[in-house]
Amino acid sequence: GENVEQHPSTLSVQEGDSAVIKCTYSDSASNYFPWYKQELGKGPQLIIDIRSNVGEKKDQRIAVTLNKTAKHFSLHITETQPEDSAVYFCAARLAWGGSEKLVFGKGTKLTVNP
Amino acid sequence: DAGITQSPRYKITETGRQVTLMCHQTWSHSYMFWYRQDLGHGLRLIYYSAAADITDKGEVPDGYVVSRSKTENFPLTLESATRSQTSVYFCASRRGTSGAKTYEQYFGPGTRLTVT
Predict the structure, then answer these.
(1) Does pLDDT of B97 surpass 90?
(2) Does the CB of B47 have a partner CB in chain A at under 8 Å?
(3) Which chain B residues touch A42 with a CB distance below 8 Å?
(4) CB within 8 Å: A44 and B107
(5) At a CB cut-off of 8 Å and minimum separation 6, what does A40 contact?
(6) Is A102 in CB contact (< 8 Å) with chain B?
(7) Distance of CA B81 to the CA centre of its chain
(8) One digit per residue, pLDDT tens: chain A, 114 residues?
(9) By three-state DSSP, how is residue B21 classified?
(10) Tens of pLDDT, residues A62-87
(11) N or C: which end of chain B has fewer CB within 10 A?
(12) What is the rounded CA–CA span in Å between residue B70 and residue B64?
């Protein structure tokens, strides 16, 4: 089955610096890769996603890149702010014969120090 | 627009009791999902439903039962709760398979369940 590895598990940066979180997936049939932000006590919130036919997508300070050949994708946050502090999860969607699932990485706790 | 809600938000129960966690969405999304979140495991899919009366197992279905008689509701039942089911449970939903943004899943606020 699909396996998603996420690194690093914790990341601490200074306000204004960039942060990069990387994920690798195992199943080449995966076709959709979302990133979620989870604040303490809340549900995961989708912040950006990318489909397998696109190499890069950007939305203001966040961007996601996908390398299908290497089976890895990354989240880039520029000009980080204290409110970016949260746990970030990557995921890969796998679909087969009418079934589907999102497999999540184990998360990265990002701390942005003022 | 209420979106997706879960109830209760917190629940403490004893081993062996039956517990039902509720999930309700107001978007008329076709798909609904149940995940559990545990330290060191991230989010794992328990069950999902593609439409009313259609359900399928996820990664960790043992000990759980789901039903979906109405599109907007997707209850999760622990038939005989065990300590290993202590977790935070999240419900999610997404649209059907046509149109833009069809793969986006939207999560509820979660239910923290403790089994003593």
Answers:
(1) no
(2) no
(3) 109-110
(4) yes
(5) A86
(6) yes
(7) 15
(8) 788 999 999 999 999 999 999 999 999 889 899 999 999 999 999 999 999 888 999 999 999 999 999 999 999 999 999 999 999 999 999 887 767 789 999 999 999 999
(9) strand
(10) 999 999 999 999 999 999 999 999 99
(11) N
(12) 19
Where do we find the tokens 């039942």? Answer: B77
Q: In one letter, which amino acid is A88? A: Y
The total number of residues written for chain B in this structure: 116
Cβ atoms B58, A101 nearer than 8 A: yes
Cα B102–chain centre separation: 19
Q: How far is CA B55 from the centre of its chain?
A: 12
Whole-number Å distance between alpha carbons of A84 and A75: 13
> Number of C-alpha atoms within 13 angstroms, CB side, residue A112?
18
- CA B21, CA B5: separation in Å to the nearest integer? 11
Query: A1: buried, middle or exposed (CB in 10 Å: 19+, 13-18, 0-12)?
Result: exposed
pLDDT at B96 over 90: no
Element spanning A5, H or E: strand A4-7
Q: Which of B39, B28, B20 is nearest to B94 (CA)?
A: B28
The partner residues of A102 in beta bridges, in order of sequence, read: A93
Contact present, B89 and B64 (Cβ < 8 Å): no
- What SS3 class is residue B27? coil
